[in-house]
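Fold this sequence, please.
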Amino acid sequence: MKPFLNPNLLNPAKTYVVAVSFGPDSMALLHLLQQLAFKIEVAHVNYHLRKESDLEQSQLEQYCLVHDLPLHILDVSKMPKGNLQAQARKIRYDFFNDLVNTLHAEGILTAHHQDDDLETAMMQIQRSNLYEYFGIRPVGFWDGVKVYRPLLDVSKQALMDYCSEHHIPYSIDLSNTKLIYQRNRIRAELNKLTVSEQDKKRKAFQEANQLRQQILQSLQPFMAKRSIPIAQYQQWDILKRFLYWVLLNQTHGIFFPITESWLNKIQQILTSQKPNIFISFARGWHLEKAYDHIWLVKNELIKPYRFKNPKGTVRVSGLNIDLDRMPQLPKTFILRSCKPNDLLMIKTYAKPFRRLAIDWKMPLFLRRVWPVFTTPNGDIILLPRYQKNYDFKANNWLEILE
């Protein structure tokens, strides 16, 4: 099989930053891009962790000089403490990101290939965690910058054969054979398998990814609302629950790690006898168990408010208040958020809002923003009763934004 670039990923009119280590994979990628006349900027990181590092940099410099390719090198004089592989990855991708932003490039290109994809999926299985996707995605992100992997359908051997056929220089990193790293151990195990056995594993992961994609599509309708009935959520298996929270994160631009232990914690809360429970979530967000629903709430939407003589539609704190549909109001009035001791007259006695909210089974966040209309002196004109499904009643003047 001859190497090829995924035709659906790249735009020849755009500029890309190409990550080149001088290994056979990245050198094959670089040569393929040259043959197709892509606009490229070569990026190389020298960590000085191997005695061959300086020689590899020198050879890459010579290659780029001969082929008139712009080359950007990051010289790492000292590695930070901590996990070496994780630190090295952060250093190089931060460098690539800076280049993309400085050069106004479309994104980063890496030479991850078919073997890397299978190794990553196997590592995920060994870690026994929940995953939205097994293997490596064709397009990913690093701190908001796109990372393209156009060689995921090409084997490592095909890339090495390509380098040999076209006399492309490269170097082999011998640290990739050291079994102290998990990926290297998995690579050694996979190398013992036949091509047919490896293909069988790939197919199994592809089917697992297809199943996840189907579940994600089935969950899309739930993304239009900020709440979900607890009874419905409880009917799902752990994979569907996991994917629900992953998709909710993506929909609202939230980064919060969804782990099995966190899902178990949520399960304990949902089965608790307490009707209302506040749950910390991502920065700026929280979850609320409110009787028979669980809500995702943006903290900035639950601030108190006060308006004098507003007109038209007021959108505030997760509510739509359509004043044009309301019963007649005095010429001068105040619209504000409710207070716990606001009193509503019920026949011959007054009842405070805090008690009404409990009777109405109102979520905690709505209690902080529920509207009340008063005179300028503070006398209550109207305190609407909370009822579910306001948004399904066409003539209602109050809508809870989900």
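Residues 303-400 form one domain. The chain has three domains: 15-192, 223-300, 303-400.
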